[in-house]
Amino acid sequence: MEEANLMVDGNAVAGRLGEVFVHEMTSARVACDGCGEVEPLGAEHAYTQAPGVVLRCRHCDGVLLVITQQGGRHLLGFGQLMWLEVAENP
Predict the structure, then answer these.
(1) Do the Cβ atoms of 85 and 29 come closer than 8 Å?
(2) Is residue 48 part of a domain?
(3) In this structure, is residue 28 part of a structural domain?
């Protein structure tokens, strides 16, 4: 089968993302692309005294995640976040 027949637009992932981001996120595990360490998101270092939130790796201080709000929208930058694992039923 050709690749063009396998591809759809990004709207196809909306339902899956909606399933992921309704879960308790502090127990979600994150992997740092800078040092390779894996920790629960709640164990990482959060800096909240800015217009947004910066989540840094507790091992190497690499920026894992930046969250800001602007014009009624949430903006997420994933920096050195290699992957995010969310358990369906924690």
Answers:
(1) yes
(2) yes
(3) yes
Question: Residue 84: what residue type?
Answer: L
Handedness of CA 36, 41, 45, 51 (dihedral sign): positive
Residue-level pLDDT at 62: 96
Using the structure block, give the residue that is written with the tokens 């969250």.
67
pLDDT per residue rounded down to tens, the chain (90 residues):
677 778 888 788 888 778 878 888 899 999 999 999 999 999 999 999 878 999 999 999 999 999 999 899 989 999 999 999 988 875
Task: Give the C-alpha separation, 42 to 33, whole Å.
Answer: 17
Query: Where in the sequence is the domain holding 21, given as residue range(s)?
Result: 3-85
Is residue 90 domain-resident?
Answer: no
- The domain tally of the chain equals 1
